[in-house]
Amino acid sequence: MQDSTHFPNRRARRQLAQKRLATVAQAAQQYDGVFTESAIRDMIFKAEDRFNSRGDRIPGNGMAEAGVILRIGRKVILDLDAFDAWLDSRKVGA
């Protein structure tokens, strides 16, 4: 009998298949009426800390630390479950 220790890629593929992944365009369709493709790209741009021209640090929005963004070469893929959790963490108290 073959187990996953002999085929680590099979385990990785199974875990990847369980994730809800989407491109930026697909995520914009998924959240139609809430976020446009441009708005999602802007959130990705602001995901990590950056510095202005004076050298002051501009804090990121936390999207990168939440594990929402997966980059494979030039391709940007979003983990929609992590995105939903990140959105929930950004709620303002009612």
Architecture overview:
- The termini are far apart.
- A hairpin with a 2-residue loop joins strand 4 (69-72) and strand 5 (75-79).
- The protein is 39% helix and 17% strand.
- The chain has helices spanning 8-18, 24-30, 37-45, 80-89, and strands spanning 21-23, 50-51, 57-58, 69-72, 75-79.
- It has four helices and five strands; from the N terminus they run H-E-H-H-E-E-E-E-H.
- The chain has one domain (20-89).
- It has a three-stranded antiparallel β-sheet. The chain has a two-stranded antiparallel ribbon with strand order 2-3.
- It is an alpha+beta fold and 94 residues long.
Write the layout of secondary structure elements.
Elements: H1 8-18, E1 21-23, H2 24-30, H3 37-45, E2 50-51, E3 57-58, E4 69-72, E5 75-79, H4 80-89
Antiparallel strand pairs: 1-5, 2-3, 4-5
Tally the helices: what do you get? 4
Q: What would you call the structural class?
A: alpha+beta
Through-space gap between termini: 55 Å
Instruction: Enumerate the spans where pLDDT stays under 50 for 5 or more consecutive residues.
Output: none
Q: If you compute it from the alpha carbons, what radius of gyration comes out, rounded to the nearest whole angstrom?
A: 17 Å
What's the overall average pLDDT, rounded? 88
